[in-house]
Structure formats: C-alpha cells, structure tokens
Amino acid sequence: MTTPIRVTGTYHHAHQNELPFGDKYPNAPGYKNKQADGPSRMAALAIRPHAPNLRERCMDTIKQIPMTADQVAETMDKSILSIRPRIAELAKLGKIEDTGQRRANESGKQATVWRAA
C-alpha cells in the first residue's frame, strides 16, 4: 500500500509492506524495508502483538481531547516510536482526523493535532 509522505512541500509515496499474518496495513503494523531481516520489518513483527491495544489506547486518549502524537505518547507514558505509527494507522483507518491546528512537538517542529473522527 502506498502512503503519501510530505517532504519539503512535495508528496512522496512510501510503499507500506504487510506482514504475512492475514491482517493488512493499517489494521496491522506495516514496514517499509523489503529485507526479510531488515530493522523495519523486525520492528513491525515485535510490535504486532501490542499494536491493537496501543491503537485502542491512543484512540481513547484522543477522544478525551485533541492532541499531537507526541502528546499522546507523553499522556500514555510510552515511546513516541511506538505511538506515531499507531496514530498513522488510526488516521489511515479514518478513526482520527486532522483538526487543522498545529502544535510544536519536542523537536520544535510543528505537529498535527488529531481528534476523533
């Protein structure tokens, strides 16, 4: 599945590979590296058992108040590296939507504020 990624004002399409367990992205974690033992695939395999619960918890958090992925991670006391992909999955599933607002994240960059759809 190709997911558009905005890079410096233009959109690039990153191919999202799917794990061989029946569930397809975005219902299950995807990965972008085609190597069978690549780090992206290994990370997707490692998070696979936890992703549904994390997605549900992210959704519950965003239902309370619109926030950025970084704010969701902080509220849940989880690594942003495990939360950002769950936010992308929820957006792809149409369960959350962009509010049009932006807030600075920890790196100082502007981040999307998400709300329940």
Query: What's the helix-strand series?
Result: EEEEHHHHEE
- Major sheet characteristics: 2 strands, antiparallel
Helix and strand composition category: alpha+beta
Q: Give the radius of gyration.
A: 14 Å
Q: So how many helices? A: 4
Shape: globular
The residue fraction in helices comes out at 25-40%
Q: What does the average pLDDT come to?
A: 86
User: How much strand?
Assistant: 25-35%
**Annotated CATH architecture of the largest domain:** Orthogonal Bundle
Can you tell me the CATH topology of the largest domain?
Answer: Arc Repressor Mutant, subunit A
Taking the alpha carbons of the first and last residues, their distance comes to 22 Å
The strand line-up of the biggest sheet is 1-2
Protein architecture, described:
- By secondary structure, the protein is α+β, with helices and mostly antiparallel strands.
- It folds into 2 domains: 1-49, no CATH class; 50-117, Winged helix-like DNA-binding domain superfamily/Winged helix DNA-binding domain (Arc Repressor Mutant, subunit A).
- It has helices at 39-47, 51-64, 69-76, 80-92; strands at 2-7, 10-15, 17-18, 30-31, 96-104, 110-116.
- A hairpin with a 2-residue loop joins strand 1 and strand 2 (10-15).
- Helix 2 packs across helix 3 (69-76).
- The longest helix has 14 residues, at 51-64.
- Mean pLDDT is 86; it is low at 5-13.
